[in-house]
Write a structure and sequence with these properties.
By secondary structure, the protein is of the alpha+beta class. It has five helices and three strands; from the N terminus they run αβααββαα. A three-stranded antiparallel beta sheet has the order 1-3-2, with helices on one face.
């Protein structure tokens, strides 16, 4: 049984069962069914007062609503910046930054990540190292910051506090150059001769006995 109400197709594909009755079709030219075989396959016409879920276009012809390109819906979801925080002892912040910001500038230049040091949210004894960039940039910057912290933390006290003048002259600890420097292999070590990791097999030392 055919319906005399307007369905939602875009073409007139069936004959209207009310058109040739005594009462006639109340929809007239706006009927979604064909008023004779000559209208079969004809696009439906409707005026601007007719409301449909998908809405008529500017010409009065039924048209679907504009679709949002799913690839452009969330452009920030791909290649977007991410952030990370590393909490460090506040006393190390100055040396992490380096004189004139030399260390942080070097890390930013090598990795492409943005680096800033800010106050910790709740602990005045800590500072936050904030990194911003892609995931790979943050990963590389975190590795360089980690090596920087190890080098700073591993520094021995000044010689004046070591009256015995032991064998660890120059601030080298028991783990001095016992591991290879990962950043040296990448050409991104910022410490040069001051690095506490070995720059090549010739600098590699065996761990000191306990």
């Amino acid at each position: 049984m055919m319906m005399d109400g307007p369905p939602t197709p875009t073409m007139k594909t069936r004959l209207c069962n009310k058109y040739k009755t005594a009462d006639g079709c109340k929809w007239g030219d706006k009927c979604h069914f064909a008023h004779g075989e000559r209208e079969l396959g004809k696009p439906m016409l409707m005026d601007s007062s007719t409301h449909f879920p998908m809405g008529p276009g500017p010409t009065g012809h039924f048209a679907p609503p504009p679709m949002v390109n799913p690839g452009m819906a969330t452009p920030a979801s791909f290649g977007a910046s991410a952030t990370a925080k590393i909490s460090v002892d506040a006393s190390l912040a100055g040396r992490i930054i380096g004189r004139g910001g030399v260390n942080t500038k070097q890390i930013s230049r090598v990795t492409g990540a943005k680096l800033a040091i800010r106050d910790h949210e709740s602990d005045t004894k800590l500072k936050n190292i904030e990194l911003e960039g892609t995931f790979d940039q943050i990963k590389n910057a975190s590795a360089m910051v980690g090596e920087l912290i190890v080098n700073i933390s591993g520094s021995a006290p000044p010689p004046a506090k070591n009256p015995a003048g032991g064998p660890h002259r120059g601030g080298s600890g028991s783990n001095f150059k016992t591991k290879m420097c990962e950043n040296f292999a990448k050409g991104s070590c910022t410490f040069g001769d001051r690095c506490h990791f070995a720059h090549g097999e010739n600098e590699l030392r065996k761990p000191a006995a306990a």
